[in-house]
Amino acid sequence: MKPTEFSKKLGIPVSTIRYYDRQGITRSERNEVNNYRDFDGRDALDIYNALLLRSFDVKLERIIDTDFDLNDVDEYMANHVPEMEELIKREQMRLARLREMQFYISEMEKGMNEGTCMTLSASYSIWTFNNGRELTLCEERNLAELAAAFPYSYVAIGIDEKELKEKEEYTVRAGLGILEVNTEKCGITFCKDMDYCPEKKNYGMFLEKEDPFKITRKDLEPIFSKAKADGAKLTGDAIGRMYLRYRRNGKIVYGLTIGIPAE
After folding, report:
1. Residue 36 above 80 pLDDT?
2. Which residue would you say has higher pLDDT here, 26 or 133?
3. Are residues 88 and 213 in the same domain?
4. DSSP, residue by residue, 76-129
5. Percent of the chain having pLDDT more than 90?
6. How far apart are CA 110 and CA 113, in angstroms?
7. Whether residue 132 is found in the same domain as residue 213
8. Which domain holds residue 89?
9. Those residues with Cβ within 8 angstroms of residue 138's Cβ, 6 or more apart along the chain or in another chain
């Protein structure tokens, strides 16, 4: 059977059939009359078998290996099950994070530049920029863990409590952070030297800035006004996170949320 006809019978592109033929999956021989590969039913079964095993990530050299017996197949699949379960777990986490991002985007659209009272979830942060010192080796290792943990980790920003009280223009530090609950989900264990923020009540807001390193008291005025109206005392550093960089009214902006703990 010629490759084009064989392709139609299998529902597989000719290029795929020729690839598997070159790799030694089929046992076809060239027709002496027209020099075409002459495929038959057994070649079809061998290609289908290869497609099945490749869907489980079995390497082609193992599929071709004549010593790859039933026990080998069973052992491979037994070992592959935990890998697949872990992959599904990770994908489910990514889906949950994606939905969380959708929620935050909708909230940003509704409540941009408005102060509100919210609960700040417990989190860990490493301050990389504008922290005024060199990172320790442990912090560098932790930072690598956080960088590998996207999308469960995020870009964190912070402003010192003293600056919030005394200045009109703030020094904004930045780095990477992650919610404590996500460290458990991802199986991350930090060695030490992490800035831990326990769950607490805070006053915060969604904000868009062309330059997130240039946040002023005027930018955060909705937070101060809301806390004052509620009779709440703000205490502690302002902590926030950047969600996305996007275009708004012809300008590139960063969408972020920032909050200040309250008593």
Report:
1. no
2. 26
3. no
4. HHHHHHHHHHHHHHHHHHHHHHHHHHHHHHHHHHHHBT--EEEEE--EEEEEEE
5. 56
6. 9
7. yes
8. 69-111
9. 191, 192, 193
